[in-house]
Amino acid sequence: MSRLSIMAYSFGILFFLVSCSFASFYGYKVVTHDLPKEEKTVEKYNYHFVLVSQELDNEYWRLVEKGARAAAKQYGVLLEYAGPKQANIEDHVKTIEMSAASKVDGIMTQGLSDEQFTPLINRVVAKGIPVITVDTDAANSKRLAYIGTDNYYSGYLAGNALIADTKGKANVAIITGSFYANHMQQRVKGFQDAVKGEKGIHIVTIQESEISRVKAAEKANQILQDHPEVNAFFGTSALDGIEIAHVVEKYKKQDQIYIIAFDTLPETLDYIRKGTIKATVVQEPYEMGYKAVKMMIDLREGKTVPPIVHTDTRILRKGDLPVNYHVRLEVNR
C-alpha cells in the first residue's frame, strides 16, 4: 500500500472516531435535556389541625369542612377532617383523644356534652393543644374560643317565626337531633321560651331523631298517628326538617301542617320552594369552618382572639328565597 493510501486510510479512521464522539456527546445532551430528573415535591405546612365533626358525612358538617379547607389552603395548614360515621358520642370522644395523642397543633370540635366534653377538653388543653369549639360550645371547659350559632337565640327566632306565621295558634311537635347535645337542648329551650306566653300554642311532644334520617322520618310518622291534633313541627337539626317534610307530603298534609326547619341544605330549600317547609333557621357553617381555622392560627401565633364569636342567624321563608339562592351562596364564598 502506498504511503498516500496509508495516510488517507488513517485520516478516514480518525474522522470516523471523531464523528462518533460528537454523535455520542450530542446524543447524551439531547437525552439528558429531554428527560429531566425526577423531582419529589414535599409540601410544607405551617400547622397541623384536626376538625372533629359529630357525624362525618353529615351534609351540614361537610359545609363546615369546606370552609375550614378553604382557610387551610390559604394559610398553609394541614387539615384533617375526622369523626364518627354515625353520630356517637363515645366515638367522637375517642377521635379527639387520638388527635391529641398524635400531638397536632390544634383541635376544632363540638362541645356536645358538659359531662363528657368538659373534662376531655380540659385534659387536651392541659397538654398544650389549643381547642376551639365549633357550632356547639362547651362554655364550662377551658376551650380557648367558640365560634358558631347562638343556639338559644336561634331556637327563640324559630319560636317567634312560628307565632307570626300561625297567628299564635298551633299544636306543635318538636323533633330534635339529640337530647344530650348542648346545642339541641339550647334550641329547644329557646323555642319553648319564645312560645310559652302564647295561650294558643301548645307543645304536644318532643322526640329525638339521633341525627338520623330514618329515625326522624319514623318519629314524624309516629307523631302524626299518635297525635292527630298536631298541626305544626319544629325540626332542630338539618335532617329533621327534611324528613318531617317528606312524611307530611306522604300524607298529603302539606297545606295543613306548618313546618319550621333548620339550615339551608339543598333539600330544605327545595321544600321551601314547594311550600312544604314554611321557614328555616339559617346558619353559616362555611363561615364557622373558615373562621375557626383562622382563629386557631392566631392562637398558635400568640394573638388574642375573642372567647365567643356568634355567626349570623336569621329566618328564611319562601318570599326571601331567590331562585339561585344556593348557587349565590357558593359564588360568594
Biggest sheet overview:
6 strands, parallel
The CATH topology name of the largest domain reads: Rossmann fold
Q: Identify low-pLDDT runs.
A: 1-8, 14-40, 326-333
Q: Helix coverage percent of residues?
A: 40-55%
State the name of the first-level CATH class of the largest domain: Alpha Beta
Describe the structure.
By secondary structure, this protein is of the alpha/beta class. It folds into two domains: 47-149 and 285-302, 3-Layer(aba) Sandwich (Rossmann fold), CATH 3.40.50; 151-282, Response regulator (Rossmann fold). The chain has eleven helices and twelve strands. It has helices at 3-34, 59-75, 89-101, 114-126, 151-166, 182-195, 213-226, 238-250, 266-274, 285-300, 325-332, and strands at residues 47-52, 77-82, 106-109, 131-134, 145-148, 170-176, 201-208, 232-235, 258-262, 279-282, 308-310, 314-317. The strands form two sheets. It has a six-stranded parallel sheet, with helices on both faces. A six-stranded mixed sheet has the order 7-6-8-9-10-12, sandwiched between helices. The termini are far apart. Mean pLDDT is 88; it is low at 1-8, 14-40 and 326-333.
Question: What tags apply to this protein structure?
Answer:
single chain; elongated; 6-stranded mixed β-sheet; 50% helix; Rossmann fold; 333 residues
Topology, element by element:
Elements: H1 3-34, E1 47-52, H2 59-75, E2 77-82, H3 89-101, E3 106-109, H4 114-126, E4 131-134, E5 145-148, H5 151-166, E6 170-176, H6 182-195, E7 201-208, H7 213-226, E8 232-235, H8 238-250, E9 258-262, H9 266-274, E10 279-282, H10 285-300, E11 308-310, E12 314-317, H11 325-332
Parallel strand pairs: 1-2, 1-3, 3-4, 4-5, 5-11, 6-7, 6-8, 8-9, 9-10
Antiparallel strand pairs: 10-12
